[in-house]
């Protein structure tokens, strides 16, 4: 993975925590968003841990540039929710953590994103839902209603589980299907709802009160 953080002391601490476990390797460090993008495109890590406010290129712009490259971005921020974090959501970030996260929580979040799943710090979730609902145009809501109508019953069940924050393995156990099948359903849901990430799907499911 790549760690992007402009404060050397903070970055060093994050790297030390992440490299304390055998299954995570930090292949590069970046002091700004430009370096983060360059390292990510060259090394193709599974995850970039991305600070938001950095010189030269901020974390949101960097996240947007990495969309569609197969590199997932886990945003790390000091702020509960502001225009930067919401911008990261729209850019397709796979997860959001606050910088006060404990070491075990950080490691678990990186592993989760590396598996292709999403993660949102509990303190961030409610505000993100409010921002997501407030800024989407009404036309998009109509389009979502049409898309919900074409979801299969199983896809709708999976979307409900995603909205509850369940992992693929948890969804598989609950619905008595395989993890591979779960991943396929999630991919189809994102395509049908024109969403860029699992996090967006989770927020949408919560916003719409899917049960």
Query: Which CATH C-level class of the largest domain is it?
Result: Alpha Beta
Secondary structure: helix percent:
55-70%
Low-pLDDT segments, ≥5 res:
none
Helix and strand element order: EHEHEHEHEHEHHHHHH
- What would you give as the CATH superfamily of the largest domain? Response regulator
C-alpha-based Rg, rounded: 17 Å
Mean pLDDT over the residues: 85
CATH architecture title of the largest domain: 3-Layer(aba) Sandwich
The share of residues in extended strands comes to: 5-15%
The domain count comes to 2
Q: End-to-end span in angstroms?
A: 35 Å
Question: How would you characterize the overall build of this protein?
Answer:
The protein has 211 residues and is α/β, with parallel strands linked by helices. It has two domains: 2-121, Rossmann fold (3-Layer(aba) Sandwich); 136-207, Orthogonal Bundle (Arc Repressor Mutant, subunit A), CATH 1.10.10.10. Helix content is 58%, strand content 11%. It is built from eleven helices and six strands. The protein has helices at 8-18, 33-43, 59-66, 83-91, 103-114, 122-135, 138-150, 153-163, 168-175, 179-193, 198-207; strands at residues 2-4, 28-30, 47-51, 72-77, 95-98, 119-120. The chain has a six-stranded parallel sheet, with helices on both faces. Helix 3 links the parallel strand 3 (47-51) and strand 4 (72-77). Helix 6 (122-135) crosses helix 11 and helix 9 (168-175) packs across helix 10. It is globular. The chain starts with a strand and ends with a helix.
